[in-house]
Write a structure and sequence with these properties.
Layout: H1 2-12, H2 16-30, H3 43-59, H4 63-76, H5 84-102, H6 108-131, E1 138-147, E2 152-159, E3 171-174, E4 183-185, E5 196-202, H7 208-216, E6 222-225, E7 242-248, H8 253-262, E8 271-277, H9 286-294, E9 299-305, E10 314-315, H10 318-325, E11 331-336, H11 339-351, E12 359-361
Parallel strand pairs: 7-8, 7-11, 8-9, 9-10, 11-12
Antiparallel strand pairs: 1-2, 1-6, 2-5, 3-4, 3-6
Helix pairs in contact: 1-6, 2-3, 2-5, 4-6, 5-6, 10-11
């Protein structure tokens, strides 16, 4: 089944954008009420579907990790008031889209593989949603909004009730200026007991939500937050397994949260963090990271810029800088940033001999 799914998806991946368009068109015909769950503009939603599909295809023969991911998705989708028939409609639309674009390659065996796989996906998500007893979403009032540089803002919110998460997680966010345009943000700090959370948001070119948050959010605004998700976390351990963290731009936010958490441990694993951006001014969190490393012998921070130089830093892309510094075969690796940065960095690490099993990343990052 895994082989058939991978091979058939590879055959249509070049037309993935068209496939996603057809999928949503078919979904809204099969279940017209689903349209109200989505924003007016579907561009970001289509790209998010594709990333989810790619992630599932990559994980199809790693069931434990896939079940964890799907369970998180199922709990997160409760905020949309998704019901059982919506899962059925998605399955019909997905199979119809694959059949249309695979054409003669849509064999009985391929259809059976995708039907079985989607059945597992839907069952896992449904069961996770049904087992969840906590809120489907949390209201969060903005307490503070300030610019960290021209393009990045810090926003601090107070949730209504405690939203449980662990350092490195991300949550889905809906802001009043852009209803139904949910985006994923990582809290910039370890969990607190008072319900306060901080986020770093960079303006993304053409980003309706990021631009709105950076330029128009004000204290008193009420956000909606979904439940915590994500694979970027570090468990307390008695071993000293080394950690490599690779962050591009605001992708450093979950690592700030993890480092905040690690600072309270009695025994810390050695951590090497590469923090990259195009220009030195893009490394908005570098001063804070250097402050942490100054009092944390277990932490090494290497800034990386593509243009301009920084003292003690490297020049070039993150992928190039990391692989020039070592092989990292004995490290657990966490990667966070834009989808292209994640893809390029993981490809370089694999080529350098790092085991895929040691690499963690989240499929939903900046849009």
């Amino acid at each position: 089944m895994a082989r058939l799914i991978r091979e058939s998806f590879a055959a249509v991946e070049a037309k993935a954008d068209e496939l996603a368009q057809y999928f949503y068109g078919a979904l809204f015909v099969v279940a017209p009420d689903c349209r109200d769950l989505f924003p007016v503009t579907m561009t970001t939603q289509r790209s998010r579907l594709l990333r989810a599909l790619v992630y599932v295809v990559q994980m199809v023969d790693r069931p434990d990790e896939l079940v964890t991911f799907l369970g998180q998705l199922g709990r997160d989708h409760r905020k949309f008031a998704v019901v059982s028939r919506h899962y059925d409609a998605v399955g019909i639309a997905l199979l119809a889209a694959l059949k249309r674009f695979l054409k003669e390659k849509w064999t009985h065996e391929v259809e059976s593989a995708w039907t079985t796989a989607y059945g597992i996906i839907a069952k896992t998500m449904r069961e996770a949603a049904q087992a969840e007893t906590g809120p489907a979403s949390w209201a969060a009032t903005v307490l503070e909004h300030r610019k960290l540089n021209r393009d990045v803002a810090l926003v601090r919110v107070q949730t209504e009730g405690l939203l449980p998460y662990r350092a490195g997680s991300y949550v889905s966010v809906e802001v009043p200026q852009r209803p139904r345009l949910w985006r994923y943000l990582s809290p910039a700090g370890a969990p607190r007991g008072d319900g306060q959370m901080s986020f770093h948001i960079r303006t993304v070119p053409g980003g309706w939500v990021s631009g709105s948050i950076v330029n128009h959010t004000k204290p008193g605004d009420v956000w909606r937050l979904g439940p915590a998700m994500g694979n970027l976390f570090v468990r307390p351990t008695t071993t000293r397994r080394r950690l490599l963290m690779i962050a591009g731009g605001t992708g450093v936010t979950p690592f700030v949260s993890i480092l905040d958490d690690l600072a309270h441990w009695k025994r810390n694993p050695p951590v090497h963090l590469f923090f990259g951006g195009r220009r030195p001014e893009d490394l908005y969190a570098l001063e804070e990271l250097r402050r942490i490393s100054a009092v944390s012998k277990w932490l090494t921070v290497t800034p990386v810029t593509e243009e301009g130089a920084l003292a003690g830093g490297d020049r070039g892309t993150l992928a190039h800088a990391v692989t020039q510094r070592g092989t990292w075969k004995n490290h657990d690796v966490l990667v966070s940033g834009s989808p292209p940065m994640i893809q390029a960095t993981i490809a370089k690490l694999l080529a350098a001999g790092v085991d895929l099993e040691r690499i963690s990343y989240d499929p939903f990052t900046l849009d």
